[in-house]
C-alpha cells in the first residue's frame, strides 16, 4: 500500500549569524512572487518505506531575518542586513542558470547542510527538505538513531534511497542529505538529476561542533566509548577515509578552510552560515556556467 504524504515547507532557521528563534527586530519580507512560488510539494512513498504513516505539518511563512540583539548593537543589525542583501543579489545572478534544477547538499554529519540549505532555499525561492526528516516521518519513528536501533542501518539506507528517488522527480528544491547518502551509487543517480554541493569542513571543526551538542542524535557515534570530542574525531576520520572520494563526486565543493582564508579568519568557526551560503552560490554559478560552456562546445564539435 502506498502512503501519500503532503510535505509542507520548512522555514529557514538561520540567516546571517543569529538564530531566528531569538527575539529579533527588523526583517525584510520576500516578495509576493517568491512566496507564491513556495507551494506544498506532494511526495508519494512506496512500499519500501513499510509505513502507512502520513506526514502533515503546518505552513510556514518565509522571511529573511536581519538579527540584532539590542538597539545599541546597530552595527550588528546593519552587518546582518548587508549580508542578506549581498546574498540575495548573488542568488538573483545564479537563479537563471539553475533552470529549476534541485540542489543537493552532501557532506559529513555536522557540516551544516540543513542550516545552509535553508538559507539557500530562502534566497532562491526554493523549498527546503531534509532527507533524514522525510525518512523519519515516513517510517513513523522520531529519529534516525531510533531507526538504526529498532530496525537497522540497511533499513534506513533503503528508505533514504526511496526518498531521494521521489525528490529527484521534482524541481526547485534544496535538499539536505544524510552524511552517508553518498555511499550508494543509486543515490548519485537520483541526486545528479539536479546539482550536488559538497560542504567540506575540517574534521577537527566537525568534532568540536558535534562534541558541543552531544552525540545522542548521531547513531554512528553514540555507542562509541570515550569523551565526545575524541570519539567524534576518531569516527569522523574513519568515515572520511571511507567517503572522501564519494563526496568528491559532487558538482561543486564549498571548502570552509578556503572561505576562512579568503576572509582572513584563522578559524572556520568564525564563519557565519551566510558566508558559507554565499560561497555555495558562487561555486554553483561556476559549475553551471562551465557546464553550459562545455555542452556548447560538444554541440559545435559534434
TrEMBL record:
CDD domains: SK
Principal localisation: plastid
GO molecular function: ATP binding; metal ion binding; shikimate kinase activity
Gene Ontology CC: chloroplast; cytosol
Keyword Nucleus applies: no
InterPro entries: P-loop_NTPase, Shikimate/glucono_kinase, Shikimate_kinase/TSH1, Shikimate_kinase_CS
Pathway note: Metabolic intermediate biosynthesis; chorismate biosynthesis; chorismate from D-erythrose 4-phosphate and phosphoenolpyruvate: step 5/7
Keyword entries, A-Z: Amino-acid biosynthesis, Aromatic amino acid biosynthesis, ATP-binding, Chloroplast, Kinase, Magnesium, Metal-binding, Nucleotide-binding, Plastid, Transferase, Transit peptide
Catalytic activities: shikimate + ATP = 3-phosphoshikimate + ADP + H(+)
One GO-annotated biological process of the protein: shikimate metabolic process
Localization (cell): Plastid, Chloroplast
Keyword match Acyltransferase: no
SUPFAM superfamilies assigned: P-loop containing nucleoside triphosphate hydrolases
Primary enzyme class: transferase
Record EC number: 2.7.1.71
Domain of life assignment: Eukaryota
Swiss-Prot/TrEMBL cofactor(s): Mg(2+)
Function: Catalyzes the specific phosphorylation of the 3-hydroxyl group of shikimic acid using ATP as a cosubstrate.
Assigned protein family: Belongs to the shikimate kinase family.
Protein name, per record: shikimate kinase
Species the sequence originates in: Ensete ventricosum
Amino acid at each position: 500500500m502506498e502512503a501519500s504524504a503532503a510535505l509542507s515547507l520548512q522555514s529557514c532557521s538561520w540567516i546571517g549569524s543569529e538564530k531566528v528563534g531569538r527575539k529579533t527586530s527588523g526583517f525584510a519580507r520576500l516578495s509576493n512572487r517568491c512566496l507564491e512560488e513556495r507551494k506544498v510539494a506532494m511526495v508519494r512513498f512506496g512500499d519500501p518505506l513499510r509505513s502507512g504513516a502520513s506526514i502533515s505539518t503546518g505552513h510556514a511563512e518565509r522571511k529573511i531575518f536581519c538579527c540584532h540583539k539590542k538597539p545599541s548593537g546597530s552595527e550588528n543589525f546593519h552587518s546582518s542586513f548587508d549580508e542578506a542583501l549581498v546574498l540575495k543579489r548573488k542568488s538573483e545572478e545564479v537563479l537563471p542558470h539553475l533552470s529549476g534544477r534541485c540542489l543537493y547538499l552532501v557532506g559529513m554529519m555536522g557540516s551544516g547542510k540543513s542550516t545552509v540549505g535553508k538559507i539557500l532555499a530562502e534566497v532562491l525561492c526554493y523549498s527546503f527538505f531534509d532527507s533524514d526528516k522525510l525518512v523519519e516521518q515516513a517510517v513513523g519513528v522520531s529519529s534516525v538513531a531510533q531507526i538504526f536501533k529498532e530496525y537497522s542501518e540497511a533499513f534506513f539506507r533503503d528508505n533514504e534511497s526511496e526518498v531521494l528517488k521521489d525528490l529527484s522527480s521534482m524541481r526547485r528544491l534544496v535538499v539536505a542529505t544524510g552524511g552517508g547518502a553518498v555511499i550508494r551509487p543509486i543515490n548519485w543517480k537520483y541526486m545528479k538529476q539536479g546539482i550536488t554541493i559538497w560542504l567540506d569542513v575540517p574534521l577537527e571543526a566537525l568534532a568540536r561542533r558535534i562534541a558541543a551538542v552531544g552525540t545522542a542524535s548521531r547513531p554512528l557515534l553514540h555507542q562509541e566509548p570515550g569523551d565526545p570530542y575524541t570519539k567524534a574525531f576518531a569516527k569522523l576520520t574513519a568515515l572520511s577515509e571511507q567517503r572522501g572520494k564519494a563526496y568528491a563526486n559532487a558538482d561543486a565543493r564549498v571548502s570552509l578552510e578556503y572561505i576562512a582564508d579568503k576572509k582572513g579568519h584563522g578559524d572556520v568557526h568564525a564563519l557565519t552560515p551566510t558566508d558559507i551560503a554565499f560561497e555555495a552560490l558562487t561555486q554553483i554559478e561556476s559549475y553551471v556556467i562551465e557546464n553550459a560552456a562545455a555542452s556548447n562546445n560538444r554541440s559545435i564539435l559534434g
